[in-house]
């Protein structure tokens, strides 16, 4: 599962890449964690718009106090599951998640470090996502996951559903079968770049939000 990614370009640069004509300033951070704000590209009346949303659909687990904060479901394991299928069937609830890198934790428990992945030669790329409007946090989004390719397998067995630029319109406007095909596709190994670091996975100032297991 993916619980951390970066988007280090300006809103104007993101808008230019994704064909958004009228970008707006957002309050999304450069490092995005579950439960924090990130940039999302979606379509409205046939026009792409850039919007800031909360990463993760709010979920109240059984036995939680009515006053407890919901858990953010920030990854989508299977588009055909009941929680997601209604949205996935309707193109208006699909979105593109702009990112520059995504991270996975690597190493022994208590001292895990961040290993970053990017798309070779691409300063920004897209992760397939779904969005909706929630009562708790307003507009929210979650990213679709798939089985990893061989480039990522040394670190994790899952990875985001990454999209090429010529995939964007098909993801946003295609059929439900098109959406499922993206989740079943293996992204090319040779397009993934891995960057191992000594950055601790959990930083002291990282937002204290627990990710929810894949649903």
Written description of the protein model:
- With 215 residues, this protein is mainly β.
- The protein has a single domain, classed as SOS response associated peptidase-like (hypothetical protein yedk fold).
- The chain has four helices and 15 strands.
- It has helices at residues 11-18, 82-88, 168-173, 176-184, and strands spanning 5-6, 31-32, 37-44, 47-55, 57-59, 71-73, 75-76, 94-99, 101-106, 113-119, 125-134, 138-147, 158-160, 162-163, 192-200.
- Strands 3, 4, 7, 8, 11, 12, 13 and 14 form an eight-stranded mixed β-sheet that branches. Strands 2-1-9-10-15 form a five-stranded antiparallel β-sheet, with no helix packed on it. A two-stranded antiparallel sheet has the order 5-6.
- Strand 9 (101-106) and strand 10 form a beta hairpin.
- The protein is globular, with a radius of gyration of 16 Å.
- The mean pLDDT is 92.
Summarize the structure.
The protein is mostly beta strands. The protein has helices at residues 11-18, 82-88, 168-173, 176-184; strands at 5-6, 31-32, 37-44, 47-55, 57-59, 71-73, 75-76, 94-99, 101-106, 113-119, 125-134, 138-147, 158-160, 162-163, 192-200. 14% of the residues lie in helices and 38% in strands.
Ordered list of secondary-structure elements with their pairings:
Elements: E1 5-6, H1 11-18, E2 31-32, E3 37-44, E4 47-55, E5 57-59, E6 71-73, E7 75-76, H2 82-88, E8 94-99, E9 101-106, E10 113-119, E11 125-134, E12 138-147, E13 158-160, E14 162-163, H3 168-173, H4 176-184, E15 192-200
Parallel strand pairs: 4-12, 7-12
Antiparallel strand pairs: 1-2, 1-9, 3-4, 5-6, 8-11, 9-10, 10-15, 11-12, 11-14, 12-13
